[in-house]
Amino acid sequence: MSSEAPYIRESLAQQSLDILRQRADSLAQSDEVEVAAEITSLLLFRLGEEWYAVPIAGVREIINDFVLTPIPRVPEFIRGVMNVRGEIVSVTDIAAMMRIASEAKGVGLQLPSVIVVRNERCVSALVVDEIGDIVDVARTLVEPPLATLDRSQVEFIGGSIYLDGKLVGIVNLDRVLEPIGENA
Fold first, then answer.
1. For 54-100, what is each residue's pLDDT tens digit?
2. Are 160 and 154 in contact (CB under 8 A)?
3. Which of 21, 71, 89, 184 sits between 20 and 30 A of 148, alpha carbons compared?
4. What is the rounded distance in angstroms from the CA atom of residue 81 to the CA atom of residue 67?
């Protein structure tokens, strides 16, 4: 019996170490998941002199070359529609929607790049002056929109963040993609 006792002790010690390693591994994995959940990815874009961003989760694609078909009797911020691989997508001039200055006037039907965005109810292409980088930011750094924003702008901005000394407005995609006439 004395010859079994050291073997049993070693076996129990090894089992205890294995359990502790498993617990440590599972705790380390949950920390990684928490860190990933606290980061949000944003696509930066410029309108006039100001920078804005949309959450990457709402971005479907970026299109640089497209044909715009104008539509009569729509609000001035709807530039028309475009065909994206058989899907008809509205083209929204987000600068006109927010009543801010933009360079995205285009020549005739030639417009600068668009960011095709979507939510569960709608898809639209947002006309922008310049596409920027994709940045990962901590959600804790996102602040509410500035109180100094014009009322016509603040409803479309869901938050703001400082990047490289510049204030970047984060677009509220649910509000921008709200069907026309629904908020009236």
1. 999 999 999 988 889 999 999 999 999 999 999 999 999 999 988 88
2. no
3. 184
4. 8
